[in-house]
Structure formats: structure tokens, C-alpha cells
Structure prediction request, 956 residues.
Amino acid sequence: MAKQATRQDHRHDIDFSELMDVAGLQTKCREALGTKDRPLLESRAALLPILRQASVDGREKARELLSQDGSGLRCARRISWIQDQLICVLNETITESLYPEGREIAVAATGGYGRGTLAPGSDIDLLFLLPEKNSDAMRKAVEFLLYLLWDMGFKVGHATRTVEECIRLSKTDMTIRTAILECRPICGSGALVNQLMSRFDLEVVAGTGPEFVAAKLAERDQRHKKAGDTRYLVEPNVKEGKGGLRDLHTLFWIAKYYYRVRETTELVKLGVLSREEARSFEKADDFLWAVRCQMHFLTGKAEERLSFDIQRDIAASLGYNARPGLSSVERFMKHYFLVAKNVGDLTRILCAALEDQQAKAAPGLTQRVISRFTKRLHKIAGSVEFVEDRGRITLADPGVFKRDPVSLIRFFHVADLTGLELHPDALKSITRSLSLIDSALREDDEANRLFLSILTSRRDPGLMLRRMNEAGVLGRFIPEFGKVVAMMQFNMYHHYTVDEHLIRSVDALSEIDHGRAADMHPLANKLMPTIEERAALYVAVLIHDIAKGRQEDHSIAGARIARKLCPRLGLNAKQTELVVWLVEQHLIMSMTAQTRDLHDRKTIADFAEKVRSLDRLKLLLVLTICDIRAVGPGVWNGWKGQLLRTLYYETELRLSGGFSEASGKERAKVAEEDLANALSDWSQQDREALVKLHYQPYLLSVPVEDQVRHAGFIRETDKAGKPLATMVRTDSFRAITEITVLAPDHPRLLSIIAGACAAAGANIADAQIFTTSDGRALDTIHINREFAVDDDEMRRGGTIGRMIEDVLAGKKRLPEVIAIRAKAKKNKNKAFDIPPSGAISNGLSNKFTVVEVECLDRTGLLAEITAALADLSLDIQSARITTFGEKVIDTFYVTDLVGHKVTNENRQGNIITRLKAVMAEQEDELQEAMPDGIVAPQPAAADGANVLPRKSKVGV
Prediction:
């Protein structure tokens, strides 16, 4: 019995004896049942601990061997063998002691298990083949075996059928057909399995190769689309993702079905794969299995997503070490993505081979598939190297690249000009000709001219660059780009590898260039036609992160690469200097907009001094938008767009000389008049009282239409006699929801509001914080939008507003509600290590001390930091809250309690020390000093007596 179970593909080179004592296991099972008849439940109970312990011990031994030899395929085959033995021993015990008729049944493995490979947590796919004349006892034997496997904790996918039923169902169901394709006998009646496979080959497989290929490729495409249609997601699905194990399995299914082979090595003999490509297949398979097995062992379940919280451990288990510029986990993930890319190469090569065989499409396939095998070759105007083959560009003859290596670049240029798809046979030739891309080709003027034309194409440059990258051409032609191919950054902010991010940046630029982004980027869409140095912009966008993974600042190193690369691509000296500047400064606009107070004149003056010209400002705006857009889904939003537009317009005024030099007092006087005029339907007395409520910073920084809304809100709250109130408004374009809070002023008010928002699950994007002359705070909090429908978002905003009111009124204790939220929220940030850091500067603002902190994000962090600042007797005048994935950068503009900058060095040191201590606290260790909530006092007298206003608190 055990000998029969070991008859599997690819497993002859593994010694399984150390995994399990099969004879001893058989003996223990016989002894457990004994000779007397037992109730079925007692029999299962007797067998269960024996089989479960054998399974646990065998898998633990497989894990030890994986750590020793590192082979994923060997591990998967060992676990498959262990599972075979458990089923064989169990089946033999059942047929000997309980259901003798069960000997006529065949137990077969299907799916991945049928290939003789199994991950530690994988489902067990079984086919129970019954003879045509079967009995209830046979079905009871199957049922007993299944119940024991379920009791052991296995997830079993199973089918109980006759051979005739299998053949009939496989003709109409592609999933069943694929499962039977992988069918392998485990124990029982081998004759039934042989009969099934013989009839399957003759009645199902024969003549249906093209139909099966088309169905499997369509199924693969649908799976890729569902998973994000890229193999460069930084948390890939090892099994189902693009470039993962399922893609390799699909290749093997196609090869096995179409070419009627059992092993990939047979494809070499048929000329489908070269020996090197076959080795690449085996290496990819082995590596992916190693990753998957380690994931299952580590998590104790069938985890298929290589998430951040396990990547470090998997990298350590597989023996990766850090190198200058790259951590161990980043080196591991780069290897992973290179393997995923190889899987894509193998897919193209196999598809090319299938077309070389001139496969005939079966009835029922789409006209597109049929036409692939019926149309003739056509010449392409202006090209002798390439021809059109059924709507795709391919080589005129096999020697094109060898005669003229420039054709490796020209191929993609012609494809771009003609809009033709790429023939897989041509891509196979490109992959096998990459060694022709040498220093001579890189310095060739024609090759560089063609590449620049591809990059700046008016059609779809991102698509062609991606195809060049997939084929390996882009990384060979620009070696610096090759160094970031498949490179991931171990953080939650960047969703893609560096090369995919750069190409997606070009996609975003092309969208703006075509005028398709007017709704999302109205300013950039308006400016793009006025940009003269279009080629320089495209080059800068493509290479802005090209120096990632180096020890030095990637912006500085990238600028040095740009200075060398641009002349090679044909850019003149002026264009080169522009690209160098853009690459070196590509982060400055984003960081200024998101982490600085844009209402502080010093912010605009400092930024304008670095930009210096309107042309640079335009280019930098577009580059910044493309960079953020390409980070990942959901990273760009309307609020970031608004911040960038505000920074652009303020800087444009400064650079063009239109920046107002009128005093703040004069401008505030005009603003008072504007507000009074806007309230023309109010009584004179009410207008004057309202205008007197506001200090200069409010009048100068809040648009008059918002001032009018606030005026109505204040009047309604006062009429209702409420000590505090909230008002909600949604803004779909900026993707934010605005909550305005009117409450008695309090030193910890910002901390309490921030805590209430955290408790309600709202992320603060920005806030405008002001004090009125009667001692109240008028704070407008902007939170990230969650729902697309305004009604849903308004209900959410109302819930958050009520949470703020309850906390301010003392109805809810802040530490408790935050702790509940933190406990309920799964914290993926624990996978990351960001040492808390802080800095204090008096040079970033003329009026305020700027405190900047950086640390790992967590629920309630903003509330804790602002509470600490209040404890330190600091008055927060404005703040910016910026989150980059797992990392948060908070910037606070502060003064002491009498409105002066903090200049004492000892006090500055104490501030940073205290803030670092707060940032280092764990989620469940909220500060005892955090306020529980305050009972709102009645508003102070209208003249503001004995009230120390917080003055301007603009912008979180």
C-alpha cells in the first residue's frame, strides 16, 4: 500500500522514510480498533489522536528539512507524501475492519495535490472513484474517511463519482476537466483510475487543445484583473497573484493538455523551451513553493498573501541578509518580483510555441482567437525588419536583432507608431537577445532617439515602457533603471515596486498630457499645454526615483544619474539642468504642501526661493502630481490636490511680483468690510457683533463664503442656548468631510477633538483652529472621506460630530473610547520599525517655533502629542498632520503662553525628549494625563475679559 502511494511524479529523488514510520502507524491503528466491533464514533475517536500526532510530527520534520535544504518543491512533495500515507493507512484500516467493500473504490488526488505537491495548510482535493455497480457500504467507507480527515483539521475538497460521471461532467465543466487532468492514484482500485485517465485522454482531451488553452488563459486574465493586474504589488498573493504559483500551474496545465506531456523537461525535447528556460521554470516553482510553505508554517494557516507583517520573518527563514542600501526583507522581495517576472517570460514563450504549432481553434471560441490562426502576414510601411501577423508586430526573419541590435529598440517604436500588439514569438526572440544590448547600443544616437520618442509618445508611452520592462529591454538599455527593477520599499505607503511606480508616473503624465485629467487635476490640465520643455518633463518623471535603494539620498544620487543620462538621450544642456533640478527637488513641493502651514508667509517665501521661476513651478507641480498618483490606489485625493493648488497659486504670486505687501492690519480691515457686506440681510447690530468676534488671522485665511456659513452656525447655536455644537459638510471633490466645532476654549481642546475623531475611526487630514473674542474656539476639522455617496458620508460625519460633543461634554471618557477603537483595529504597523524623531526650528516661520515629529502611526497618536504639548505650556497656533502609510509626520506651529517663540535650548531639548517618550508608547498604554473630557463652561463675556485667546490656529 505504501509503495503504491509513493508512485508520484518528481519524487524519486527524495528519501521520505525519516518523515513517518508507516508500518508502525498501521500497527497502531489496527491496535486502536482492536478485534471487537465498535460504534463508528468510538472508532473515529480511537483513530483520531494517532493519525493527528503522525501528521503533526511529519509536518514538523518537513519544516526542519525545509530549513536545512531550502527547497520548496521538496517540502511540498514531502507534505504530499505524508498526506498520502495518512490516507492510505486510514483507507486500509477502514477496509480491513469496517467496510471491506471499500477495497473496490479508488482514492485519487486532484488539483495541486494531484501533482504530488502540497503546502502545509493547503486544501486536500480528493476524488473517490466508484465502480458502476456500487453500494451504500462503499459510500459509508468514503464518509468515514472524510469525517476523520475533517476531525484532523484538514479542509477537504472532494467528489464521489463513477468514471462515466467524471467523463460526462469534464466535457462541460473546465474546472472539473482541469482537476481530472491532474488526477493521481493514492490507494484503492488502481484499475479505476487507469480507466478514467484512458477514457479522459481519448474522449475529452483529444482534439480540444485550443479550446482548453483559450479557456485557461482567459481564466488567468480574469484572475489577474481581480488581483490588481500587476505582479508588482508589494503585498503579493503568492498563489493567485500575477507571476505566482497559479500562473506556473496554468502553464503546466496547458503544456500537459496540449503537448500531452507529464513533466516540463519534456518540453525541451519538443523544442518549446530551451534548457535554460526549463531550469528557470524549475527554479521559479521551487522558490515560490519555499515562500508559500514558509508562510503556512509561520502563520499556522493557509495564508497566501505575503503581507508586511510576515515578510521580515519569511526573509529571515529563507536566509536573506541586508546589503548597503537594501534591508534583508527588501532583498528577499526583489528576488520574489524577479521570479514573478520570469514567470511572465515563460508565459510569453509558451504562447509563442503554441502559435508556432498553428493550433486550430475549436468551435465556440471567440472570433478573435479564430482569427489568430487564419490571417496572413502583411508588410509594415516604412519597416523592413518587422511585419504584421494577425494584428501583431513580429520579426520579418529570425536574424533581425543579430544584424542590427538597434532593432531591439526600434521594435517597440514601430509598435507604438502602428498601435499593433506584440507577437509572443517576437517577445521570445527579444528575451533571448538581451545580451546584444551592450555599451555600444546604449551610446548609439539612433537607439537613444527612438527611445526618447517612445517615452514622449503622444499615444500611450506607459504601455510601451511597461512592455519594454517586461521583456527586460528597459533595464538593459538604462542600467540604472535595471537596478530598481523588482525593487520594493518596505513600507505601507508605496503599493508597487520602484520600476512599476516610475512607469505608472509616466501613465499619469500621459493622462494629463492628453487632457483627460481635467476633473481630477484642473490646474495641471490647464498648465500642461503651456509647458515648453515637454521632453525634459517626461525624462524627469521616468527617472525621479531611479536611485532608490542606495545608501545616499536618492534625490541627490538621482540628480547625478540624470546629469549623465540626459545628454545620452539627446537632451541639450538647458534641458539636462532642468531634469537634474527636478529630480533633486522632486519631493519638495509635496512635503511643503503636506507638512507646512501654507498661510505662513515664510513658508511661501522659502519655497519660492528654491523654485525661482514659473517654468520650474509648473514642471514641479505636474511631476509632484504624477509621483503621488503612482504611489498606489487611494493615495491621491482631492485634499492633496487642493494643498498643491494653494501652494502653486501663492508661490506664483510671489514669483510674478503680485504678492501683496500691504500690512496685515490693512488687509484685515478690508476683510471685515467684505464679511459685513456679505451679511447684508442681517441687522446692523448683529453684523457688527459678528465681525468683532473674529481676530485678524481668521479674517485673512478663511474664504468669505465660509465666514458666512460660520456666522449662521454661531447665530443658530447662540439662539438655541447651546454651550457647544458641531456642523457637518461634505466635499466630494476634495474627498474630505468638514466638521466645524464651536465650544468654549480650553488648552487641551485640540487634543480632545483629535482623540474623539480617533475614537470614531476618522483620520484628520487638516484643521483650521481659531479663537473668538468671547472666549470660544471655532475649529474646523477636515477628515478623510470614507463613503462615495454624500448621504452616507453625512451620516458618518454626524456620528463623528456627536462623538466630539459627547467627549467635550464629559459624557464619554476619551482613554476608554480610544482604547476600544485601538483594540478593534488590526495594527499592521507592528511589522515596521520607525524610531521616533523630533526637531525644533525657529527659521521656518517669522512668528512661530516649528516642532516636527516623525514616528510610527497608531490610533490616538495625535491626541497624545497635542496633550503633551499642552502639558509643556505650548500654544498650538497651527499644525499639519501627514500620514505616509505606516509613518506619520506631524508639524506644529507653536508659541509659549505669551505668544513668543521658544528660544531656550534647554527647553527645546525637554520638548523633544517628552514628545519622543509619547511617540514611543504602545497603543494600549495611553497617557494617564490625557483628559477624560471637560464639562463645557458658559461662554465668557462678549468683551473677552479675562480670556487669553489662542489667536490664529490655522491649518492642520
User: Anything to note?
Assistant: DSSP finds 42 helices and 17 strands in the chain.
